[in-house]
Design goal:
Rossmann fold, about 10% strand, two-stranded antiparallel sheet, 3 domains, single chain, four-stranded parallel sheet, alpha/beta
């Protein structure tokens, strides 16, 4: 595994150096029309590549590749590129060589290096994940200490992520002997712990995990202290709270340490980034589709009686009600408790409405909802209030969908989970995809969903 990580970092180093060099040379050949000296940008390219490698290694980005989502690994690479070029620009300015280095060259190199880093990391991440899933490599090698049944359960869960259990020890050996009175705060585990240390040393594990019940905490602390002399990470997992621990993070809270079970999906900075992108993209989208805002209303008036726009009450961010805009595609204007979801061959859908719903043209007015801040371009699709309340009673995690703004499109929709939700299973699958989006949000993820919305066939499944 270590060899693969070294190979991945080395590959990125070479490709970054090549990208920086050829970007500068091609810029001069194609734009400036004056081929530079072939050795002109070699030193600078190697400096850029070396700085990028030092930033990646210093921030332990590759060592964490299997313990973080893809978008975090890619985002950390983009951050490294930003840091590298900030330092690079400062360096050439301080050394007074900036006059020989045009701003356009730096910009072209930065763009080329960024694309190279993102592409290289995306490929390596996929390769390593496939290797772990197929059992070709082990993400981590661990030793378990606990009751046999608990060890078996934990080992099975760990194996799903490529973590291999190489040995298990029964924790009962290390529990304090209840027949021997102990001094206050003392635990009789050291005699057995020393033997455990000796047994574990030749195994060369990456981690030792101690699985405990509530009554085992004092013994576990003493055992952990004894195991600290091994060059491994030592973990303590309460077996009764294993599912809770799986979604928790230990965080600093003031001058205390807490177990954070859930967190707000977007930080204030991320919300600002997402909002700025929404406003810019919504304005651009309205400009591009502005002819449809003239053609579609005329067609609706010619096709059937009724208003052009349909406003429906739905639940938005923090479960607050919003009024979602759509081009009217039905002969009825159902809302609230009287709402009934559209089905295949629904007689309430007009002739024009059937075309608009299949092509998603009826959703275009929601760009205005995005501009005023009620919605986002990407997020969980909002449901009518009656439907929302019904499923919230049946699916415990349903309301977590409202921890972000609802979207015109979403991860569930581009995976084909849209349209009729006549069964609980269909809604559960939609909720699972929505929660995955919330827990793994990134701006790159939003861009991916938007591209899939425009070009994927899945977005048109069940559109009626």
């Amino acid at each position: 595994m270590a060899a693969l990580l070294v190979l991945a970092a080395s590959t990125e180093f070479l490709l970054v150096a090549g990208a920086a060099y050829f970007a500068a040379v091609l810029y001069h050949r194609l734009v400036v029309l004056s081929p530079p000296d072939p050795t002109r940008y070699i030193q600078e390219s190697l400096l850029i590549s070396t700085l990028e490698l030092l930033a990646s290694v210093g921030l332990r980005q590759y060592s964490r590749i299997l313990t973080q989502p893809r978008h975090v690994f890619l985002w950390s690479g983009a951050t490294s590129v930003f840091l590298v070029f900030s330092f690079f620009i400062s360096t050439i300015f301080v050394l007074k060589v900036s006059l020989d280095y045009s701003r356009a060259t730096v910009i072209v190199q930065a763009g080329s290096v960024l694309l190279t880093v993102l592409g290289t990391r995306a490929i390596w991440f996929s390769v390593l994940q496939l290797a772990v899933a197929s059992g070709l490599i082990d993400a981590r090698r661990i030793i378990l200490v606990g009751d046999p049944s608990h060890c078996l359960h934990f080992s099975a869960r760990a194996a799903a992520t490529g973590i291999r259990t190489i040995r298990a020890f029964d924790f009962s050996t290390f529990r304090a002997d209840s027949s021997v009175p102990a001094r206050a705060g003392a635990v009789q585990v050291l005699s057995h712990a020393r033997q455990l240390v000796a047994d574990c040393r030749p195994l060369r594990a990456d981690d030792i995990v101690i699985l405990i019940s509530d009554s085992d905490i004092p013994a576990a602390l003493a055992l952990s202290s004894a195991l600290s002399e091994l060059p491994v990470d030592v973990h303590v997992v309460p077996v009764g709270a294993m599912d809770l621990m799986a979604v928790s993070r230990i965080t600093e809270f003031g001058n205390m340490v807490t177990m954070r079970v859930f967190q707000s999906p977007l930080t204030p900075f991320n919300r600002a980034i997402k909002r700025a992108f929404d406003v810019a993209a919504a304005i651009a989208g309205l400009i591009v589709v502005s002819p449809l805002f003239v053609i579609v209303p005329l067609a609706i008036k010619l096709d059937s009686r009724g208003p052009v726009l349909f406003r429906q009450t739905r639940h938005g961010y923090n479960n607050e009600t919003i009024r979602v805009l759509k081009f009217r595609s039905m002969t009825v204007m159902e809302d609230g408790d009287s709402f009934r979801q559209a089905t295949r061959h629904d007689p309430r859908v007009t002739r024009l409405g059937r075309f608009m719903r299949h092509t998603n043209i009826d959703e275009l007015p929601q760009l205005l909802n995005v501009l005023v801040g009620d919605m986002s371009l990407v997020g969980p699709r909002p449901h009518a209030t009656s439907q929302n309340e019904a499923f919230a009673e049946l699916i415990s995690s349903f309301s977590r969908r409202h921890n972000v703004k609802p979207g015109i499109t979403g991860w569930a929709q581009v995976n084909g989970y849209r349209g009729d939700t006549d069964t609980l299973e269909k809604m559960q699958r939609r909720v699972e995809h929505d929660l995955y989006y919330i827990d793994n949000w990134s701006l790159l993820f939003d861009l991916r969903i938007i591209l899939l919305t425009l070009f994927s066939r899945e977005i048109y499944v069940n559109a009626y």
